[in-house]
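Continuing from the previous page of notes. For each protein in this section, the sequence appears first, followed by its C-alpha cells. Read the first protein now.
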Amino acid sequence: MQNKVIKQTSRKQSPSFEIGSQRTPGPLVSIVQVKGHLRLLRAFHNLRVIVEECKDRRIPTFATQMDRDSRWMWFITLAIDRFERWVKSLKFVPLEKFINKHFPPIDVWMVWHAYLLNPCWYEEDCERLLILQQLRLLNMFVVASIDVGKLANNQPSASRIATWHKQTGSFFDPFDSMEELTHKQMECPRCRTRVFVPFVNDNGTGYSEQHFSAMCPLPGCRLKITKGNLAVAKFVRDLTESEDGNESYMAGSLFFGNGKRDPRRAKAIKDQLTQSSQFCRKSPPSSNQRIARLDWEKEIKESIGYSRPLLKDAIVIALKDQPEATRTRILGAYEDDSPFSINLISAVLRQGVFTKGIDELGWLRPGAFKEGGKLQILEHALLRYHCFLDLTVASPNLMSVPTLDIDLIWHSHQLMGGRYGVDCDIYIGRRVDHPLTTEEGILSKALDDTCRAWQSRFHIPYMQCGCPAPDETVFERLIRILRRYTGTRTRLQALLHPDHLPATHPSLHNAVLNPERGAFGSFGKPPHPQRDEKDLVRLSRPLGVRTKRSKKTEPELPPQSEGFISEKISDEPVPLGPAPPYVGYGSDLHYMHDI
C-alpha cells in the first residue's frame, strides 16, 4: 500500500506526455528550468534598461550622446566581440570548475542565449567551426545542468573574474570593459594586413554603425573595407578550406529546410561550388599547400571584384540546380566578417522583442508565480508546449507559429543545447528550427494554419487572448456541425488561469514586417506608414495587455469568427484539459485528439 502511494506521488511530480506515437518519461522541460530562464530574461531586460537609459556612469560620453537604439546596438556589438574572444579561449573543464571559473559575464551570456535560440544554425556552426569545438563539448550537459538565471544574477567570484581576464584580456564587467574596447581587429580582404577600426567614430562609419567603412593602411593596397567585401573574404576562406575534418561544409548547407541533417548533401554542395567555373582554380597550384590556397583565394576574390552582389550572382549560377531557398540560406550566412553564420546583432535584438512581450505580461517580476496559485500558469504553458510538439509531428509540413507561453517553454528547451537536438531526433525525427526572421505574409498564413490545425487536433482554440481567429473553411464548418450532432467533445476539461489568457497571443519577434501591408495577418491592425522594432513590440503585445494601456475604460474585444471559437472569451477561467495525450495526475490516459 505504501509503495502504491509513493508511486502515485512520483507520477504526480513527473507527468509524461505523448508526442506523436511516443510517450516521454517526463516533461522535456521542467518548471525549475523555466523559472531559471525567466530570471535570466529579467537580467537581460535590466541590462538593456541600464544601457538605453544611461544608468551606469561608466558608459563613455560619446555613447551617452547617441540615441538609445544606437547605444544598445553599440553595446551588443561589444558583447559579440567579447563572446568571440571567450569561445576562442575556452578549454574543456569539469562542470563544477566551468560554473565556478569559466561561466561568462551577463552580456556574453546574452549573446550565447540568442545564438542557442537558432538551433539549426548553432548546431551546424558547432560542427563546422573550430573555435566552437570546446563549446560544443559543453552543450550537452552544462547548459541543461545549471540554474542559468540564478548564476547570471549572482555576484561573480574573484577566481571567475580573474580567469575571464586571463583568457580574454578584458575586464569581466561589461561596463568596465567599455573603456578598453574601442577598436575591432580585422584582416584586409585583399592584402590580409591586420587592421584596427573604431567601433564608433565621428562620421558614422565605425564598425558598430550602419555605414561602416575603413581604409586599408597599407600604401600598396588602400582597399576600402566594407561589410560586403569582408563577407566575400569569409565566403572564399570557407570555400578554399581543406576538406579534411568537420570544417568542410559551407555555412547554411548542413540542414534541409525541414530540419533534416544531411552531411552528404552539404559535402556535395561544396564540391559543386569548387568545381564550378565561377570558383574553380584556374592557374596551376603551387607545391606549397598554404601558398596554393592563398593564390586560389586571391583569384576568386579578384574575379568577382570583392563584390557581394557579384558573389551572389556567382553562387546562383554555380548552384542553379539547387532550390532557391538553399542558395538564399547559404548567402545569408555571409553578410560580414563574423565567424558565426547568423547575424547575432539581429538575433539579440529580436530576443529583446520577445523579452519585452514577456515583461508586458508581468512574468519577469520576482515572485510572479508564487501568489494566488499562479504556478499553474507555467504548468499549463508546459502542457501546451508538449501539445505544440505533438502537432509538429502530426503536421510535418506545417510551419507552426508559437504563442508567447509556448515560445517561452520552447526557448527554455533550446537553451539545453545538445539535449534539445537529441529530444527532437527521438520524438520528432528532425530538428524543429526556430527561424530568426520570417516575412510577415508567410508568418501570417502560418499562424492561421496553426490555429486551424490546433483546433482540428485538440478541439480547443489555439489563441484565447481575444484576437480574432482565422475564417472557418466550408470543410471545417461541416466537421464542426458533424461533431455537434455526434456528441464529440469540442473542448477539453481543464483550467487556464485568467492571467494566462494574454500569453496565448502569437509570438511575433521573428516577423519581418512589410511596410506596404495595411495589417498584420489575422490581427487586423490599421495601416502604419513605418514599421520598425517599436511597431513589432506593439503588435506583439497580447490584446489583454494592450487594452490595459488604452485610455478607454471598457475597450471592445475584436469579434470572434463564428464557429471557430465556439465559446465567448470571458474573464472567467477557460476550461481546458490535461493535454495532449497526457499522463501523470491519475492513472487514466486522456487523449485530446480523439474524434
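Done with the first. The second protein uses the same format. Note its length before scrolling.
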Amino acid sequence: MSGVGEILKAVGAFGPFQKRLVLLTVLPCLSMAFHQFCQLFMVVDVPHHCNTSWILAIDPSLTEEEQLNLTLPRDADGEYDECSMYSPVDWNLSSIVAYGLNTTEKCRNGWVYPSTQPPSLLTEFDLVCDRKDLNGISQSFYMLGLFLGSMIFGPLSDRIGRRPVILISILIQGFFGVGIAFVPHFYVFMAFRCVVGASVSGITMTILSLATEWVGVSARPKAVLFSHCCFAIGQMILAGLSYGIRNWRLLEIAGSAPIFVVFFYIWVLPESARWLVTKGKIEEAKKVLQKAASVNKSTIPAELLEQLKPEKKTKSGNILDLFRKKHLRNLTLIMSCIWFADSLVYYGLSLNVTNFGLDIYLTQLAFGAVEIPARIGCIFALQWFGRKKTQGVFLLLSGLMCLIITGIPEDQLVVTTVLAIIGKFTATASFSTSYVYSAELFPTVVRQTGVGLCSMAARAAGILAPLIHLLDQYHHAIPIAIYGSAPVVGGLLCYLLPETRGVDLPDDTRAHSHSSAEICENANRSSENGCVKEKDGGQDNEFTKTTYF
C-alpha cells in the first residue's frame, strides 16, 4: 500500500478528528471495567450454616440458639460448622437433649444466611462449601468469553471492518449485560457472562486498531493509553458503585444499561482509512480522509489523493499468514507468550482483591487508582526508552513483586497489599505496552488477526487465573508463585523482539521487521541512532535496529 501514511500526515497526527475519536472510547472502556471485575463484589462472604429447620417440626418453640446448638457441630475454634450438620432423627426433643446427636453429614436442605444481608450471588445461588468453587469457575467462563471474542472478532474485524464490529459488540454487551440481572439459575448467569466477555474482547481489540490506524506515530501511545486510563477510572467507579448498591441484580443493571447511550456511534464513528485502502475501497477511503482533514482544518494535496491506490488486490489476512514467514512467526509466538504472562499476573492480582485481608472496596479503589499513573507513566517510558525495554522491565518487576509476596507471612496484610499494588502497577504498565507494541509490530492486513491471536493467549491465561487460585487450598503461596513466574519468563523473551519506536505502521507482510532490524544493526553498529532508510517503490521505509541488554 502506498500513500496512506503521507495523507495522514497531511490530515494531522492528532487533530480534533483524532481527539474526538479517542473520546468516543470513554464510555465503552468504563463499561468494560465494570464487567471485568463486577463479580468480585457480587460474591461477598457472609456467615452461613446448614438449614436445620427439621428440628422445629419436633418442637416449634425452640429459640434459634437452641436449634443451632442441638443440630450443628462446632469447629476447632468453637464456632458452628458452616458446611456440616447432625443427621436428622425421629426422636423426641427430650431424647435429643439427653443423648445428643453424633452422626454428621453435609448440608441436606441448603443454607441459612443473615436476614439483613442484601441479595448476592453467594446467598441466592448458594456458592458456599462444596459449591464455593463455582465462583472461580464462573470467572473462568467469563474469561472464556474473552477468548472466544478474540478468536471471532479479531479476524471478523479484518474482514468486514473496524466500525461494524465495534457496533455489533456494543449491542451484544448491552442486551446480555442487562439480561444477566434477570437470570433464574447460576448456569444461565455463567452463559450470559461468557457472551458479555466475548463482546468486551471485541470492543477492546477493535477500538485499539481503529485508534492506532488513525493517529500519527508520535501520538499513538497517548491515544491508545488514554482509553486504558478510562478503564482504570472505571475500576474506581466500580468500587464506589458496588459500595452503594449491594443488591447484585441492581448493580448489574446500573453497570450495564449505560452502554445503550453509545448507540449514536452508528452516525459518528468513522471507519479506518487504512483498512479501506487494504480492501481496495479507495473512494470510501478518500471520503473519510477528506472528512478528517475538514474537521482538522487541514487540506490534502490533490496529487496525494490520486496516489492513493492499492499496489495490488489484497485479500483478508488470516492466522496462517502469521506463520508462513519466519519473521512474522517469531513475532507472533513471542508476543503471544508476553500477552499470556501479562494477563496471568494482571488477573491473578486483580481477581484476588478479596484475599489480601484489607477492605475489599478500598483495595479495589487502590487497584484502580494505581493503574492511572501506571498507564500515564507508560506513555513517557515508551517514548524515552522504547517499546522493548519498557515491556521487558515492567514484566520482570511485576513477576518479582509476586515472588516476593510468597515469602511474606500471612499475617502481614498491609505489606502483602502494598506489594500487590506495586505488582498491579507494573503489570498494568506492561499490559498497556503490549497493546501499543503489538499494534506496531503486525502489518495492517493482519494486524487485527495478530492482535486477536495475542489476545487469545491472554484470554487463555485469564481462564487459568481463577482456576490457579483454587490451588491455595494446598498452600497459600502456590497461586502467587505461578502468577510471578510467568512474567519473569515473558520479560526475558522481550529482548528477542525488534524495536518499533518512531517507525511507521507496516501495511503488508513484506515488511520484514526482524531481518530489516538486523540489517540495520549490522550496518550501523557504531551509529548513534541505529536507523537507516531504505527505498522501496519510491517510499521511505524506516526500520529500527534490535538492541540487547
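What the second structure shows: The chain has 22 helices and six strands. The first strand starts at residue 49 and ends at 50. We return to this in next week's lecture.
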